[in-house]
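Researcher: Sequence recovery benchmark, item below. Answer with residues only.
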């Protein structure tokens, strides 16, 4: 549609908006900081033990000693980071975050566990089994775990403002420093166009409340096993501080048997850290094992 001067209706509408005071560009001075002022507000980064054997040694920082850069093991994932844990089903994602939850509880820390797929009473039973496999007396740490049951409450699962308000209440009420969401994919089922916005909102929430957080996300069957793409697309991985990718392959050919040094018919599980903004990290693809007692272990890298 054009008017008698050949201007489109879009052009006229945009021009009118530009004339409106609200749409004129303005300087947001509070958004401008010099480095020392921004650094003064930055929390000190340290390693958070994950409870996953073999994982804590894969993160490091670099410090200057005697004028030379020295690589130092961080001893866990960087505090205040938000990680995306992604993979297809049966790769160990939930086991990994349950071990992380148990480990924080065992350290005397309060951890918020948002269960989106499984009702809270079933989720806590699974976490209890993980604690027993790790050798901890669950009765001594169970109340350090605060569950938010988004699986049973649609108003939490389908209304992100309700969820963030509830998480904020729980964080302040219990003094929690850690949040697990299993799974973040369940918060945008059938709404993948909104995935980026939902993950961005949750990421900003974790940063605002200085939380160290793990988001579990599902892979679609069409996704390449060891890529960081999750349901919702690559945007999910781009928003968070880093992604851990879990994968599995069934050995079907002699070539695979030779590569993985496993017999035909066996399942091989793999693990890779796909980026971490807040520290250095190992870049190799590692073997991953789920033990007979149901624990995830990160093993040696593929040679």
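Model:
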């Amino acid at each position: 549609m054009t008017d008698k001067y050949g201007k489109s209706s879009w052009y006229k509408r945009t021009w009118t908006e530009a004339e409106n005071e609200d749409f004129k560009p303005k300087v947001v001075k509070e958004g401008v900081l010099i480095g020392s002022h921004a650094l003064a507000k930055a929390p000190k980064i340290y390693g958070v033990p994950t409870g996953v054997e073999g994982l804590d040694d894969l993160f490091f920082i670099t410090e200057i000693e005697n004028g030379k850069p020295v690589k130092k093991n961080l001893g866990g994932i960087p505090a205040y980071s938000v990680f995306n844990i992604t993979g297809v089903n049966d790769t160990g994602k939930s086991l990994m975050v349950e071990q992380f939850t148990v480990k924080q509880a065992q350290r005397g820390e309060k951890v918020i566990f948002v269960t989106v797929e499984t009702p809270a009473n079933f989720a806590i039973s699974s976490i209890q089994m993980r604690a027993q496999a790790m050798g901890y007396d669950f009765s001594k740490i169970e109340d350090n775990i605060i569950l938010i049951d988004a699986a049973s409450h649609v108003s939490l699962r389908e209304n992100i403002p309700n969820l963030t308000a509830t998480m904020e209440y729980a964080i302040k009420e219990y003094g929690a420093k850690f949040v697990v969401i299993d799974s973040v994919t369940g918060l945008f089922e059938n709404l993948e166009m909104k995935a980026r916005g939902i993950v961005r909102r949750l990421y900003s929430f974790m940063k605002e409340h200085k939380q160290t957080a793990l988001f579990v996300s599902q892979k679609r069957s069409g996704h390449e096993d060891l890529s960081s793409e999750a349901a919702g697309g690559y945007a999910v991985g781009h928003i968070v501080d880093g992604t851990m990718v879990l994968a599995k392959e069934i050995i079907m050919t002699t070539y695979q048997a030779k590569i993985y040094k496993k017999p035909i018919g066996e399942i091989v599980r793999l693990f890779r850290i796909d980026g971490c903004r807040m520290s250095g990290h190992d870049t190799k693809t590692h073997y991953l094992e789920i033990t007979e007692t149901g624990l995830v272990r990160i093993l040696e890298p593929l040679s």
